[in-house]
Amino acid sequence: MGRYAIQRLLGVIPLLFIVSILVFMFIHLIPGDPARLVAGKDATLEEINGIREQLGLNLPLWQQYVNYMGDLLKGDLGESVRSGIPVMEMLESRFLPTIILTFTSLGWALIIGLLIGIVTAVNRGKWPDYIGMLAAISGISLPGFWLGLVLIQVFSVQLGWFPTGGIDTWQSYILPSFTLGAGIMSMLARYSRSSMLETMREDYVRTGRAKGLREFTVVGRHALRNSLIQVVTVAGLQFGFLLGGSVMVETVFSIPGMGRLLVDSIAFRDYTVIQALLLMFAAEFILINLIVDLLYGVLNPKIRYASK
Amino acid sequence: MRFKGRTWSLLMLLLAFTIVAAGCGGNSGGGEGASEGGGETKPVTKDNKDVVIAINANFITLDPHNAGDTHSISGARTMYEGLMGFNEKMELVPMLAEDHTVSEDGLTYTFNLRKNVKFHDGTDFNAEAVKVNLERIMNEENNLRMRKSFSKVADVQTPDEHTVVITLSEPYNAFLNKTAMALIISPKALEDGIDITKNPVGTGAYKFKEWVQGDRLVVLKNEDYWQEGLPKVDSITFKPVPENGSRIAMLKTGEADFIYPMPTEQVSEVEGDQNIVVDKIDSTIVRYITLNTMKKPYDDLKVRQAINYAIDKEAYIKVVKSGLGSKLTSSMSSMTQYYSEQSGYDYDPEKAKALLAEAGYPEGFEAEIWGENDSETMKGMQFIQQQLALVGIKVEVKSMEGATLSDQINSATPEDAKIQMWYVSWSPSSGDADGATKGLFSSEFFPPAGSNTAYYKNDNVDKWIMDANKSVDPEAAKSIYADIQKQIWEDAPWAFLGVDQVITGKRAYLEGVKAFPDGSINVLNAEIK
Amino acid sequence: MSDNSTATVISVPEETLVNRPATGKFKAFMSKFMKQKLAVISSAFILLLFIVAIIGPHIVPYPPNEPNYDALMEGPSAAHWAGTDEYGRDILSRLIDGTRLTMAVSLSAVFISAIAGTILGLISGYYGGWIDRLIMRGSDVMFSFPDLLLAIGIVAILGPGLSNVVIAVAVFGTPSFARIIRSVTLSAKESLYVEAAQSMGAKNNRIIWKHIFPETVPSIIVNVSMKIGGAILAAASLSFLGLGAKPTEPDWGAMLSMGRDYLSIAPHIVYFPGFIIFLTVLAFNLIGDGLNDALDPKTKN
């Protein structure tokens, strides 16, 4: 187990290295000249060239990459092309809002998703099943930006229950996390339903039922516990995708998180910031995958790790 | 027992479903409630003196010498001041200089500085401070955005503590406007080497409190401000809120006291609301289509005129600008310095068709229009496509992300440029005629050197632009700019469309916060009533 | 748009879809499927949409692209059942006309990613070894990018336009297909008759095509039907970012995102496209769920 974990951890390094090259090439493949965008619309050619030189954008691409990686290995993420602010500093202030947003989204999606999953599985083929699945699938059938705008219109402007966005109070996270979690909720509901159905067919659940245990006990103690492991695992995997989804939600709800920083940085071809963000997203995704993998092994002794 | 479990689960289901249903069903209700005027009946008051302003983009930098975007400039102006300033008509007014004189040859500017002004850190404002700031701007190593505005400065002298004499190498008509853009930073702060983008120290009415990247800029009342009785509020908080719908929602709920820009689509909706006041002023922002005069068929004056006749400018304002704007009647807005009104190109599709036939295109032709991919620009391009279709010009709309578009335009030589029509806007950064003319119409400024995307070249215009820049006498400059505008209007390198309005929304209790014609926000006189 | 790409990896418990000859059980499948009331209703709705997509241009009450500046943003009425938009165009006509476009974009995007993903998944699962690791690490890398950047990147590199939207949506749909098909392939490979075929000396290509591919068909069908909804939403999200359909085209997503500035003054402009997108995506998802249940051998009637 320990050996497996170390092996997997070491495996992350080449993966991140490849990601860094890909990210770098990809960004530079996208047309757009950061020097010109920084200089502004009425800049002279001389000014633009000056900025280009200052940023090192006149160097050959491989050299830019080497310089970048050199700084990165020293722990220096560089400075924003657009504002000159150190990237590290920008990430510091942007990190927390996104993390809170994704965790709250995941949290409620997990609870509601599981509830719907249980209820629909227990009542399979009856009308609570239909309503539950309809509600769950509705969550994944709406464009996120639209749901967000409608929620603001209804719950902030009309009813005045929640703020329209921002990060000033905990209430400001309610609408955005609902919007962001809707898709995941629907997915988790469907997944927990099918995994509940499956475990309920397993022998030990049937035995429990045959022994005359109450349905509640059967569902709660046996079926639920087993499918819970799988559902939590799956939910963990969604974390990376939530990070991506935060882009739109952060725009609609004016949350100063990493998603919005990414959109702004892409618009200005702020290479250093985009690179840092993407590497961070990738690292986070890979890390969480790894943790989920390992947890799965801990929770489910049936799986053994072969070290090949 | 079984029954109980089921009831419970049904309740949970119902709850989940209601939440989703409320989200969907609420949409139609949203419209009805809103059109009745927000629902509140009593005018709302505010019990503190902290003003929140929501704007549509982030601040980029708080270095006043390196700020290029309007919002960063607005932010800097809460804390900093220049020798000169602008009033709400974009006219120059004295700020840190009480008065000034210009020598007859237009080369020497003498400023008499205001006395008893202190920076936020207690340092005195004096001639030396001005000199230090100008040197910072002009130092090539700093590579500041403001440097090119001061490239003609040959010498800065400080004969006494309250006098600054600036000598230029050649006359530069727009120089005073530039001195209004160069805000003065505390020399002590600069000397100490603290990062002034993080800790701005100026002479302005507000002191820096905090700047959280992407979330807010907070400035506090400067108790020792040199103008008596100002400022009247305790703090100002700027918040970037990019999505139009969210920004207006903040104004309606009172989370923001002032928003800019106010989405034009929603102006009519809030106009009946007694808690919200919408202010509209003409801006210096002009909207037009550049026509590539080096490319067929746009190289034919008749074709360019036909396009101008084919577009109904009134309908453009009604449809694209929700009725808020005015026709563009020259190459610059009426709010820009030395504007001279032109006439003609009234909507006349028959004349447009006739001109096209004369030019050899009786059936029209196929064309392509470029523009950025924000919803407002896309709306404008769609309208233009509809209008030109009526005279037989079949336009394909190509919306591109800003940086991609800029790359497309600037990576081409004039001869092989693919650009045909570009739907775009322009606003001179310091409200001066030079900024609204040179980069757009001088043949020196074909892309990538500048923004003359019409590839317009007229020898007279080229010469006049140089003359105007060097003229010392405002009247002479005015008449030269009149000639320039007349010539451009006749040559029609653009399809002239409209002038934006700067539209702001505010809560009724807030006064004194104003947006200027260039879209910058002034909070000096902010007051809660 | 990001949620959709994984939704289906998970929602189809992979192992349930294998171990079952794909042919000959059509009747059993139909009888199971017909019992799924929601899925049947949804199928009828989608069928209707396809009919509208085909005959749409002939049944529109107004020319969908003809502006009328004297009838801007009028609410629903007898003359305009769904009202008019910000140019005074009839929204119902645009929705009908746009059905074809919206369907074409999402269907072709999903088919492209299904084909590419199936091929990659089959290769990866069947051959294993370095090629498997390469493909799977590749999809890991793609998963670790936010879809948004991929989409912006692809559209920026290729230029704007609907065909590039198709490519962008297809590219970020491919890895999840590859993963699903790979896991189905792995279990199919273990099954007896593949081993038998191998021992009889059949060529790899033939084994993949004749024995393994049929095993993956149910998964492909289920996933295609579930992904179409996601693709419609992804295209709409691209429109929100200004990277979608040309603003002149009556694509539903473009209508929704162009109209969002009018949400509070003329909600019908976004209400109708939003509602039709919602119904369509919902229907495709319900069909997917129904198919999943019907194709699942463990499901009891």
From TrEMBL, chain A:
Pfam family, one: BPD_transp_1
Sorted UniProt keywords: Cell membrane, Membrane, Transmembrane, Transmembrane helix, Transport
Location of the ABC transmembrane type-1 domain: 95-296
Function per UniProt: Part of the ABC transporter complex GsiABCD involved in glutathione import. Probably responsible for the translocation of the substrate across the membrane.
Family statement: Belongs to the binding-protein-dependent transport system permease family.
Lineage of the species this protein comes from: Bacteria, Bacillati, Bacillota, Bacilli, Bacillales
Superkingdom of origin organism: Bacteria
Name of this protein: Glutathione transport system permease protein GsiC
TrEMBL record, chain B:
Bilayer disposition of the protein: Lipid-anchor
Keyword set, alphabetical order: Periplasm, Signal, Transport
Signal peptide range: 1-22
Domain of life where this protein originates: Bacteria
SUPFAM superfamilies: Periplasmic binding protein-like II
This protein's GO CC annotations: ATP-binding cassette (ABC) transporter complex; outer membrane-bounded periplasmic space
GO BP annotations listed: dipeptide transport
Record flagged with keyword Nucleotidyltransferase: no
CDD domains: PBP2_Ylib_like
Compartments it resides in: Cell membrane; Periplasm
Residues of the Solute-binding protein family domain: 91-443
Function: Part of the ABC transporter complex GsiABCD involved in glutathione import. Binds glutathione.
PANTHER family, A to Z: GLUTATHIONE-BINDING PROTEIN GSIB, PERIPLASMIC BINDING COMPONENT OF ABC TRANSPORTER
Protein name: Glutathione-binding protein GsiB
Automatic annotation (TrEMBL), chain C:
Superkingdom of origin: Bacteria
InterPro entries, per the entry: BP-dependent_transpt_permease (IPR050366), MetI-like (IPR000515), MetI-like_sf (IPR035906), OppC_N (IPR025966)
Lineage: Bacteria, Bacillati, Bacillota, Bacilli, Bacillales
PROSITE patterns in UniProt: ABC_TM1
Cell membrane recorded as keyword: yes
Pfam family, one: OppC_N
Membership in a protein family: Belongs to the binding-protein-dependent transport system permease family.
Main location: membrane
Protein's recorded name: Glutathione transport system permease protein GsiD
Function, in words: Part of the ABC transporter complex GsiABCD involved in glutathione import. Probably responsible for the translocation of the substrate across the membrane.
SUPFAM superfamilies membership: MetI-like
Residues passing through the membrane, by range: 38-60, 103-127, 148-172, 220-244, 265-287
